[in-house]
């Protein structure tokens, strides 16, 4: 008799199970055993090392991922020279709307401060528990702060910047390499592009290997947190989820509605026609996987010309990551609040900038934004290990921000077609 085999649970389901196991197990352990030495030994020598090992596997690939993803992302804009006006409009649109999304997120996180509701004792313990302590604020200097920031961004030695963890400098160098590739004759730089694409593929496979450990790492990380500090440490996390989803919903409903109405199309009609695209994006959590559906719907239902739809949607699946940029901005400020790191308006402006830039190099696959957030966190003085705090709830946020990313791509195609006078409107579609 043939035995039936059941399919393994999807990774996101196992991560959510790990989240529940970690929170419930840690909370019960805290309730039953309090400060017992055995519980302390369990968190110190078992669960915390498991969580840290996973995070180190992620950190291990940050530099090669950052370099290859950003360089390739910018190099892909070389097509702007061919498509000229359409390419420039698409790029400027993406920068502007992505910037708006980040500002919405930062406004909400400053207004509601989801990470600020911790006791000073808990916050001090969290800082002590991280592998990378929060650096002290910079000492006073007579050097102009704008000049100092520029000197920190532009590296005199990119290799030394990478070794010393100067991530803004690494990002700038990666962007400049991408610009150099885009401006060079394709035949001459093709071998280098192949090397970068190979490096990118290798890094993505390594991340896939690391993510197999994610369910156990999430359980271990959250068990450690709740066993040491109790379930109250989860309250800021729930508030953080609400702020992210609120920001994504606000940008989706308000910003995109204003844009399509400006283009002469009724928002209700627009959202009804792309319902299939949004559903596919939510279920796959991947802009790349949704691209074929988005192309078909944009051309057939919204009547965007094929050449515009193909260019804008393909470029947008990498460079127009509104939801990812909003998520990154909120997460950075949330973790800064969580660890008690106060960010000035200048530092928050820097968060806006690097979140938009990081969106250019974010992979259009599930969880593709997590590794790229580590250098942004470290650049503003937040421990990179803090990313583990939001890892357990990232799946639902990933699904939601992918909807915003893909909807933003379709909105960009409608805008560009309208600006070119090539968007056919009927009485049913007009706003």
Tell me the radius of gyration.
22 Å
Described by its quaternary structure, the protein is: single chain
Please tally the helical runs, counting DSSP H or I stretches of 4 or more residues.
21
From N to C, what is the helix and strand string? HHHHHHHHHHHHHHHHHHHHH
Features:
431 residues, mainly alpha, 21 helices
Question: Mind explaining what this structure looks like?
Answer:
With 431 residues, the chain is mainly α. Helices cover 75% and strands 0% of the residues. It is built from 21 helices and no strands. Helix 3 (62-75) runs parallel beside helix 9 and helix 12 runs parallel beside helix 21. It is globular. It starts with 10 loop residues before the first helix and ends in a 12-residue tail after the last helix. Residues 130-141 have low confidence and may be disordered.
Outline the secondary-structure elements:
Blueprint: H1 11-33, H2 37-60, H3 62-75, H4 80-83, H5 85-112, H6 120-129, H7 145-153, H8 158-163, H9 167-183, H10 186-211, H11 214-229, H12 235-262, H13 267-273, H14 275-284, H15 287-300, H16 306-319, H17 322-338, H18 345-361, H19 370-379, H20 387-391, H21 394-419
Helix pairs in contact: 1-11, 2-11, 3-9, 3-10, 3-18, 5-12, 5-16, 5-17, 5-18, 12-17, 12-21, 14-15, 14-21, 15-16, 15-21, 16-21, 17-18, 17-21
Compact overview of the structure:
This protein is mostly helical and 431 residues long. The chain has helices at 11-33, 37-60, 62-75, 80-83, 85-112, 120-129, 145-153, 158-163, 167-183, 186-211, 214-229, 235-262, 267-273, 275-284, 287-300, 306-319, 322-338, 345-361, 370-379, 387-391, 394-419.
């Amino acid at each position: 008799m043939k035995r039936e085999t059941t399919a393994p649970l999807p990774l996101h389901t196992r991560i959510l199970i790990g989240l529940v196991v970690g929170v419930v197990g840690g909370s019960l352990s805290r309730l039953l055993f309090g400060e017992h030495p055995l519980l302390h030994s369990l968190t110190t020598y078992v669960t915390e090392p498991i969580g840290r090992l996973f995070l180190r596997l992620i950190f291990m690939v940050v530099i090669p991922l950052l370099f290859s993803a950003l360089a390739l992302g910018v190099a892909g804009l070389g097509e702007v020279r061919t498509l000229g006006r359409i390419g420039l409009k698409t790029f400027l649109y993406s920068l502007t709307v992505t910037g708006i999304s980040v500002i919405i997120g930062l406004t909400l996180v400053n207004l509601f401060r989801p990470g600020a509701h911790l006791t000073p004792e808990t916050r001090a313990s969290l800082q002590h528990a991280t592998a990378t302590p929060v650096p002290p604020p910079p000492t006073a200097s007579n050097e102009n702060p704008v000049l100092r920031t520029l000197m920190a961004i532009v590296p005199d030695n990119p290799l030394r910047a990478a070794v010393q963890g100067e991530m803004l400098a690494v990002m700038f160098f990666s962007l400049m390499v991408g610009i150099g590739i885009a401006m060079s004759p394709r035949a001459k730089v093709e071998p280098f592009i192949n090397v970068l694409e190979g490096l990118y593929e290798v890094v993505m496979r390594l991340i896939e290997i690391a993510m197999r450990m994610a369910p156990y790492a999430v359980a271990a990380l959250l068990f450690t947190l709740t066993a040491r500090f109790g379930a109250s440490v989860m309250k800021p996390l729930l508030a953080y989820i609400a702020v992210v989803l609120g920001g994504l919903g606000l940008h989706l409903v308000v910003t995109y509605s204003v844009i399509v109405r400006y283009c002469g199309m009724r928002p209700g009609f627009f959202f009804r026609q792309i319902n299939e695209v949004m559903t596919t994006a939510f279920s796959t959590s991947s802009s790349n996987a949704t691209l074929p559906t988005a192309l078909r719907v944009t051309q057939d239902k919204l009547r965007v010309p094929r050449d515009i739809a193909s260019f804008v949607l393909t470029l947008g699946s990498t460079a127009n990551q509104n939801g990812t940029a909003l998520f990154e901005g909120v997460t950075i400020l949330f973790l800064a609040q969580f660890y008690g790191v106060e960010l000035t308006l200048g530092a928050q402006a820097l968060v806006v900038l690097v979140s938009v830039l990081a969106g250019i190099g974010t992979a259009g696959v599930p969880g593709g934004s997590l590794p790229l957030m580590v250098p942004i966190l470290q650049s503003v003085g937040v421990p990179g290990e803090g990313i583990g705090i939001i890892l357990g709830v990232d799946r639902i946020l990933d699904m939601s921000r992918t909807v915003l990313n893909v909807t933003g791509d379709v909105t960009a195609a409608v805008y560009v077609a309208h600006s070119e006078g090539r968007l056919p409107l009927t009485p049913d579609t007009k706003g």
